[in-house]
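Office hours follow-up: a student asked to see two folded examples consecutively, so here they are.
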Amino acid sequence: MPLPRRLNAVRLGAVRLGAVRLGAVRLGAVRLGAVRLGAVKYGGPREPTPVRPQQPPTSTPRMTTRTAFAIAAHPDDIEFMMAGTLLHLKSAGFEIHYMNLANGCCGSTERDAATTAMIRRGEAIRAAASIGAVFHESICNDLEIFYDLANLRRLTSIVREVAPEIVLTHSPVDYMEDHTNACRLAVTAAFARGMPNFQVDPPRNAVRQAVTVYHAQPYSNHDPLRRLVEPDFFVDVGDMVETKVAMLACHASQKQWLDESQGIDAYLQALRDSDAEVGRMSGAFRYAEGWRRHLHLGFCSAAAAPLETALSDRIVARRARDGGEGPSFP
């Protein structure tokens, strides 16, 4: 029997365009929309909001607060790969924001998906609060971070709300597709931030804020074909690594699960080991996070390097490590 589908029509002047609503097809998806936590309706998978013309197209001027936005796939990804740099940016005067696109619902072999997602949401809120970051709700389930229009409309709306100068996100290629697709969504949402004719969910005006996108190291520092990935530059997180560990410890459900299956304190030690490996790659720091800067076209000026400028006393570039001239930051 064919799957049901609903057709919406968007009226744009005299042109009538039929759009297929895929949200009506549910293939065993976990519906968390009925769970209310305080005043917040939990954001599980839902149908895309119908596209309505936003007239007239407008944009919001550049914000005065300097803002850095970490966008990752799952609860605890920011802690592992981005939190040290995010903390340094906060110390440099940035307002910091924290978002996991997926809700963590698959992170248990003992609890059901809805219960797991609620637990992991609370853990992520505590981790974000522990460093004074603004927390943003997830938009989908684990393994459902698809590069699709519904997710893109939702994330772009949030990017317009935050209007970040810096976006920290995953490597363009990583060991699992949730990470890779989270990166793709973050990049396109940043790109579409200033396009008033791209309609978002919920509706928000486009913003003029220039944004520079940075990619963290892939998990394990290797791509899916086992090749080593080296960053453009390294950020010293030696004085932040235990703060990162404390953030990670907020994810108690994951710590218990992995410690029981992999050994005592395996979860927390894995973070230290990962940062130590990047530190060895830097040739300069005991613990480090590695970053690559996205091409500027469509995002910012060619000279824009806000992270390198803000943290210049904590950075070594790969060229400098290899005996080159080192970075040239404005």
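And the second, which I mentioned at the end of office hours:
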Amino acid sequence: MFVRNEQAIFTNMERDLLQTVVDTLNRGPGVKMHVLPEEKRINERQPVAKVRISRGGYVRDWHVDFKKQLTPALIPGLLDRLQDVAPRMVMAEYITPNAKHLLKDNDVAYADAAGNIYLADEQLYIFIENNKVEKKAEVSVSRAFTKAGLKLLFLLLQHPEWVNEPYRFLAEQADVGLDTISKVYQALQKEKYLLPVTDRTFKWNNREKLFTNWVEGYQQTLKPKLRKKTFRALDKHQDWKILQLPDQTYWGGANAGDLLTNYLIADHWTLYTAQESMVLMKAFKWVPDPNGTIMVIEKFWKHEHPDTCVPPLIAYADLTEGDNPRYIETARMVYEKYLKNII
């Protein structure tokens, strides 16, 4: 499958994935796949590889990108990366079922390390689901992705220029201990997210990966530990957009997606607040309801935000928790408009 000069351009993971997919497809009736020689890449956002797939009179080259694991949180950034190429394919060691649905909905072929493959265009349709048990990659146990570490990274992702600020300043802004700053910076250096410039200064590296790891860390580690309550409005026709929010209270989830893009209609409401529940209940005439469609979540960041919705980073993380295609498309718009230039 590989010639000598092609091997060097792939990591071990990428080479193993390519080998698995090639072997799986080439066992099929009349289907052949091989890896094309490397082309010069204009920038690092371009897909990593190109493969040629043939069957009978069908011959077509597919652009391929790689991920270690693929969850809904990564789909908007992936679509942005692949938006200028077609046909397109992503290979990953593990792809969640929800992510597979989203890839299909967005005309992106996929393949995983278990040999599951979906590949379709106007002339070719291949779908292999071998039902092997897939083990989801473990969430990083790095110091950078603990609850306190994620709070610090929340600030540093929004303010990359703060990377060389004094530890005491960062601890105050993130509302974490000084020892947390030191441990997180050590972890970021170890994992090559921070590169030393001098003994006391650093520059960022691979912030896109840091961003996606933060989103998954927020969804799996920080957010589950925040206090939550569900409510319903006594007025079934209440318009959330005209509600006057108290201090330290912001719309999240689909509401934030609507406010940031004017694209989404919020079917469930999400509110982040530092206020006690009774303040919201009195102000909005809400009542507790375990089956309610209004989720109120503890606000974890320290300072006021100038808008009525959460920062775009949280909106993106909220919108990519499930597999709702409309939410994912909204998250892609949030990424493109608010996050792409700081990541």
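Two things to take away from it. The CA atoms of residues 230 and 290 lie 6 Å apart. Confidence is low (pLDDT under 50) at residues 2-8.
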